[in-house]
């Protein structure tokens, strides 16, 4: 439908996609105080439990998914309410600027700025400085990982207690990892769309998408450098049973690399951060789904964290697909697998 509307000149695919994903306004919540504010000029929505507490609560910065292109405070309203109610936490949902209108690093900068503001004003929200977590799904998981890495070495702000990464996209070097091959046509995120969104975030357009999908955008020496972190060899064998075949390397195209070389920046692709950064990261929770092109990004980051001595809780939805958390109570329907995933996040939060 979006393509039809675009061809007729009525609106773009992105405008249509935002419309159908916008979410609807919900009424008051009997258990939560909810207010829309701005943190360093970034729009946020703050959820605070109404019940009295024995002491300061944990705090959660939530960055929504949507390929850096879609999503809003309203889209994730039910998810954020659930997290706040069930974990008895103060949740701050961040409305970062979206691509393609606002290219990288706009979304990252907004999330970082909002997080820094919150960490500087925790007392105002009765939040425990020792229990602040960043959390996000899909592109939001990417942003949470990037913010966590940036703050890992900071000495002038409270240290993050944990990072929660829900089927995060963490690299744009290899779109042919086993999970990309196995789930290339599985909703809600097709292989081509993953590259499309990454390019929109980086450049504001999807030029050279085919070359990026084939791997022609990374120089051989750089691919060799990052192979220790981005490689099918680091994926456990049980995840390679379904339809995986070795692919021949494609020829490098220098002019394509020039347009996408920032894919090698950790603030855009956190899987590429140096060990000196990764080993400083807080306790981590990673959720992956079997039927998701981004599954292996999560598995590779899990290995990197563990190799650097960072405690990791991993929850794998064997019957899950990409985006399943965002469909919690969507139009009155919930997937049992998505509810299990959301509850696994709540249980992790309660353990902090």
UniProtKB/TrEMBL annotation:
<dbReference type="InterPro" id="IPR050300">
    <property type="entry name" value="GDXG_lipolytic_enzyme"/>
</dbReference>
<dbReference type="InterPro" id="IPR017157">
    <property type="entry name" value="Arylacetamide_deacetylase"/>
</dbReference>
<dbReference type="InterPro" id="IPR029058">
    <property type="entry name" value="AB_hydrolase_fold"/>
</dbReference>
<feature type="domain" description="Alpha/beta hydrolase fold-3">
    <location>
        <begin position="251"/>
        <end position="325"/>
    </location>
</feature>
<dbReference type="Pfam" id="PF07859">
    <property type="entry name" value="Abhydrolase_3"/>
</dbReference>
<feature type="active site">
    <location>
        <position position="138"/>
    </location>
</feature>
<dbReference type="GO" id="GO:0016020">
    <property type="term" value="C:membrane"/>
</dbReference>
<dbReference type="GO" id="GO:0052689">
    <property type="term" value="F:carboxylic ester hydrolase activity"/>
</dbReference>
<feature type="active site">
    <location>
        <position position="292"/>
    </location>
</feature>
<keyword id="KW-0378">Hydrolase</keyword>
<dbReference type="InterPro" id="IPR013094">
    <property type="entry name" value="AB_hydrolase_3"/>
</dbReference>
<feature type="domain" description="Alpha/beta hydrolase fold-3">
    <location>
        <begin position="60"/>
        <end position="207"/>
    </location>
</feature>
<comment type="similarity">
    <text>Belongs to the 'GDXG' lipolytic enzyme family.</text>
</comment>
<feature type="active site">
    <location>
        <position position="322"/>
    </location>
</feature>
<protein>
    <submittedName>
        <fullName>ADCL4 protein</fullName>
    </submittedName>
</protein>
């Amino acid at each position: 439908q979006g393509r039809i509307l675009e061809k007729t000149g009525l609106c773009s695919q992105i405008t249509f996609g935002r419309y159908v994903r916008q979410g609807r306004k919900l009424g008051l919540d009997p258990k939560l105080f909810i207010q829309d504010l701005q943190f360093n000029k970034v729009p946020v929505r703050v959820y605070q439990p109404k019940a009295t507490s024995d002491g300061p609560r944990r705090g959660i910065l939530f960055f929504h998914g949507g390929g850096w292109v879609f999503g809003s405070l309203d889209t994730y309203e039910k998810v954020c309410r659930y997290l706040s109610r069930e974990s008895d936490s103060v949740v701050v949902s961040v409305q970062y600027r979206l691509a393609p209108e606002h290219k990288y690093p706009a979304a990252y900068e907004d999330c970082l700025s909002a997080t820094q503001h919150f960490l500087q004003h925790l007392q105002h929200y009765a939040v425990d400085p020792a229990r602040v977590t960043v959390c996000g799904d899909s592109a939001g998981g990417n942003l949470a990982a990037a913010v966590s890495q940036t703050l890992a070495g900071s000495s002038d702000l409270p240290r993050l207690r944990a990072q929660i990464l829900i089927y995060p996209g963490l690299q744009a070097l290899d779109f042919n990892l086993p999970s990309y091959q196995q789930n290339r046509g599985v909703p809600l995120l097709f292989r081509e769309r993953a590259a499309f969104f990454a390019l929109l975030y980086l450049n504001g357009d999807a030029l050279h998408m085919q070359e990026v999908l084939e791997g022609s955008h990374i120089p051989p020496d750089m691919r060799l450098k990052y192979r220790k972190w981005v490689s099918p060899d680091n994926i456990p064998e049980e995840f390679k049973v379904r339809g995986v075949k070795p692919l021949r390397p494609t020829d490098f195209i220098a002019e394509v690399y020039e347009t996408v070389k920032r894919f090698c920046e950790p603030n855009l692709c956190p899987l590429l951060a140096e060990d000196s950064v990764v080993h400083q990261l807080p306790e981590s929770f990673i959720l992956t789904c079997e039927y998701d092109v981004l599954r292996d990004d999560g598995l590779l980051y899990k290995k990197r964290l563990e190799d650097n001595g960072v405690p990791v809780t991993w929850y794998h939805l064997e019957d899950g697909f990409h985006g399943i958390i965002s469909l919690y109570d969507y139009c009155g329907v919930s997937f049992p697998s998505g509810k299990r995933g959301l509850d696994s996040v709540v249980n992790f939060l309660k353990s902090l």
